Structure formats: C-alpha cells, structure tokens
C-alpha cells in the first residue's frame, strides 16, 4: 500500500480520535448540566479543546494533501458532487436526530444518569465522520487552489 494511503488513513484515525474527545466531553458537560450539578472541571474543557485541535489539524492536513494529489493526478476519479452532498446531508440528519432522541431520553430519566454511554458516543462519531468526509472532498474539489496550478 502506498505511503499516501497510509497518511490519509492516519489522518482519518486522528480525526476520529478528535471527534471522540469532542463528543465525550460534550456528553460529560450535558449530563452534569441536566443533573443540575453545575460546571465540570477545567480538565473537561481542556480535553474538549484538545479534540478540536486534533480534528482541525487532521482536516487541514487532508485538505492540503488531497488537493496536492488531485493537482498531480488530474484524471483521478472522484465521486459525483450530488452523491457526496447526499451522504453528508443524510449523515448530518441522522446525527441531529440521534442527539435529539438521546437528549429527550436523558431528560426523561429520574435521576439523571451520570455515566456516559459509549455506544452513543460511537454513534455520534460515526455519523459526524460520515458527514465530514464528503464535505472535505467537496471542499477540495471546489477550492481555488485545486483549480489553479
């Protein structure tokens, strides 16, 4: 397998780790707020920020490398924009619907559970990844740097 694919896979893994940190910490904050226990510690917000940094670095790395790859290989096949947009919209809708259902379930519990559901975090990360990957591919396709050499 080529080094390019390894680097893209590594960037995808880093993005998933960043999303996992983000959603884990957001879930922690929301459960504490629903339970009325006040604000979480500063470590929660630091981990949230670390997840944002990791995700941001992974996305910008992929944007740069994938754009360079497409400039070097102009005949490389790409999925049609309508399919990428459709995948992003459906994944985003599933993510929003899942978050809404989970929030209503948490509010209905008495007392509010304080344990984080790993399956829900995996659901959020999966659908957020499915929404972000097509957006990155579309962004590279329509960016000015891709059109010009």
The gyration radius over C-alpha positions equals: 18 Å
Question: H/E element string?
Answer: HHHHH
What value does the average pLDDT take?
90
Oligomer: single chain
Question: How many separate domains make up the residues?
Answer: 1
Helix content: over 70%
Which range does the strand content fall in?
under 5%
Q: Report the strand count.
A: 0
Structural class: mainly alpha
Give keywords.
149 residues, mainly alpha, 5 helices, elongated
Would you spell out the secondary-structure blueprint of this structure?
Elements: H1 3-35, H2 42-72, H3 81-108, H4 118-142, H5 144-147
Helix pairs in contact: 1-2, 1-4, 2-4, 3-4
How would you describe this structure to a colleague?
The structure is a single chain. By secondary structure, this protein is an all-alpha fold. The protein has one domain. 81% of the residues lie in helices and 0% in strands. It has five helices and no strands. The protein is elongated, with a radius of gyration of 18 Å.
Short description:
With 149 residues, this protein is an all-alpha fold. It is 81% helix and 0% strand. α1 runs antiparallel to α2, α1 packs across α4 and α2 packs parallel to α4.
